Amino acid sequence: MNLEFLEALDDLEREKHMSKDMLISAIESALVSAYKKNYGTSQNVRVDIDRETGDINVFVRRDIVEDVEDPFCQVSLEEAQEIDPDYEIGDVIEYMVTPRDFGRIAAQIAKQVVIQRIRETERGMIYDDYITRQTEVVTGIVQRISNGTVFVNMGRAEGILSTNEQIPGERYRVGERLKVYVMDVKRTSKGPQVFLSRTHPGLVRRLFELEVPEIQEGIVEIKGAAREAGSRSKIAVCTYDENVDPVGSCVGPRGQRVQAVVDELNGEKIDIINWSEDPGKMISAALSPANVEMVLIKESQEEKSALVVVPDYQLSLAIGKEGQNVRLAARLCGWKIDIKSHSKWEEMEKAAAAELEAEKEAAETEEPAEAAEKKTVTASAVKRMKKAELVEFAAENGIELDPKATNADMAEAIISALEL
């Protein structure tokens, strides 16, 4: 170790932003381990590197005790006071034991430590760089393909595009330039791993941000996105400037802006709609290109659902191939959507009206039926009843009688009340 090495550490501190003191401390720790390994000792050793000259000294540290139990780590008070009479029990005494050939070992260890720390620092810088770029779109070059996994060279780091994050049907070639979405960044023993995606809805968002200046400037905002990669995407946009058409801004002159995004996604269809706080308007727009006649909102604590009525000839368009259109609309809006054709809705309305009418008729006929039940007894039968029977019968039918009245008077009162 010499002045040239210290100067090299100064250069590293400037270029790699690595602390010189941190490097020297790391080298000292590594030299302690190297000394114990090479010289077969379990002594308490300390290595000191002079920050001015670069000289290395190795010291054995021993505790001053009254009774020595471990001669490698302890020394008696008498022996210590032979060196310095001021030593007392509990003090620590150090002996310089630097071997003659330790400079060669130190140089090798220092080189290894510095290289290792440079790698760790660079890995840390790469991690810090890409963790801030998470959820962004970066451009890389396909470096290699292994078992379906695509490894993308992004300059300082290599990104991983797994098979699950690749657009179905897309084929990649080594050397091909690719726009990818940074999905996640993780630290590993081999350095930071950057996980990429071509299927994430965020990719569509970021591509529009790159193509549409109004989005970059904050005039237009993408409020939501739903995607089935390789097939179709829907995005909802809004603006805070009444003089700006958010959909038109995203489409661009002669459709150039949206076409650039479509080309990057290899022909994936993209629907752009106006975002609305009104659930009915939002759901109607989300189901485009289908026309919607009516939206019935049903919101509860458990779920948010909507019944949508469309013309008969628009039903298949509203649902989409294998339910794709309504599925994407539901994801975009965050509502459960049930679609009915106009004729089916009319049938449901007629059935509901008929049921309501039946309930009404049942309610109207219920009271006459009760009255008819009350009239099942005849006047002659009442006249033949005994007094106790008359009192009981009157109570059952809600008729008040004079308890002092005769049988005949009670019978006449009942007959009169029931209009027999």
SSE topology sketch:
Layout: H1 3-16, H2 20-39, E1 44-49, E2 56-65, E3 74-76, H3 77-83, E4 92-96, H4 102-131, E5 137-146, E6 149-153, E7 158-161, E8 177-186, E9 193-197, H5 201-211, H6 213-216, E10 220-228, E11 232-239, H7 246-251, H8 256-264, E12 269-274, H9 279-286, E13 294-299, E14 304-310, H10 315-319, H11 324-333, E15 336-341, H12 342-374, H13 379-383, H14 387-396, H15 407-418
Parallel strand pairs: 2-3, 7-9, 11-12, 14-15
Antiparallel strand pairs: 1-2, 2-4, 5-6, 5-8, 6-7, 8-9, 10-11, 13-14
Helix pairs in contact: 2-4, 5-8, 9-11, 14-15
Q: How would you explain this protein's 3D organization?
A:
- By secondary structure, the chain is of the alpha/beta class.
- The chain has five domains: 3-127, 2-Layer Sandwich (N Utilization Substance Protein A, Chain:P, domain 4); 135-197, Beta Barrel (OB fold (Dihydrolipoamide Acetyltransferase, E2P)), CATH 2.40.50.140; 214-275, GMP Synthetase, Chain A, domain 3 (2-Layer Sandwich); 277-367, GMP Synthetase, Chain A, domain 3; 375-418.
- The chain is built from 15 helices and 15 strands.
- The strands form four sheets. The chain has a five-stranded mixed barrel. Strands 1, 2, 3 and 4 form a four-stranded mixed sheet that branches.
- Helix 2 crosses helix 4, helix 9 packs antiparallel against helix 11 (324-333) and helix 14 packs parallel to helix 15.
- The protein is elongated.
- The mean pLDDT is 85.
